[in-house]
Amino acid sequence: MKDLKRAVLITIILVSGLLSGCSSWSRMGKSISSDMKGGLNRTVTLYDYNGEEIRHWSGKFDISESENEVYFDDQNGKRIIIHGGIIVNEEN
């Protein structure tokens, strides 16, 4: 019984160590942190198809996307919905 407990403990430690280095676990941790802290500090820049900047937003917020749009609530609580264009999302 003692050997079984030791084997289970070693397996858990090894699996935890292997998964902690995975980028998917890192992304999941960052998502949880973002959800708990009200977002990440970001700069979102919207460009037209010729590469000219249309507008940019900076602040602490979460960004969501669907098939046709990207949306987020800015620091003033205003919902920004973007249809089309080229969007660059940079974490500060």
Structure write-up:
It comes from [Clostridium] clostridioforme 90A6. This is Lipoprotein. The chain is α+β, with helices and mostly antiparallel strands. The chain folds into 2 domains: 1-37, no CATH class; 38-91, SH3 type barrels (Roll), CATH 2.30.30. 37% of the residues lie in helices and 39% in strands. The protein has 2 helices and 6 strands, in the order ααββββββ. The chain has helices spanning 2-20, 23-37; strands at residues 40-47, 53-61, 63-65, 69-73, 79-83, 86-91. Strands 2-1-6 form a 3-stranded antiparallel sheet, with no helix packed on it. Strands 3-4-5 form a 3-stranded antiparallel sheet, with no helix packed on it. The longest helix has 19 residues, at 2-20. It is elongated.
Low-confidence stretches: none
The tally of strands reads 6
Distance between the termini: 51 Å
CATH-scheme architecture of the largest domain: Roll
- What structural category characterises the helix and strand content? alpha+beta
Q: What is the count of distinct domains?
A: 2
Organism: [Clostridium] clostridioforme 90A6
Protein name: Lipoprotein
Topology, element by element:
Layout: H1 2-20, H2 23-37, E1 40-47, E2 53-61, E3 63-65, E4 69-73, E5 79-83, E6 86-91
Antiparallel strand pairs: 1-2, 1-6, 3-4, 4-5
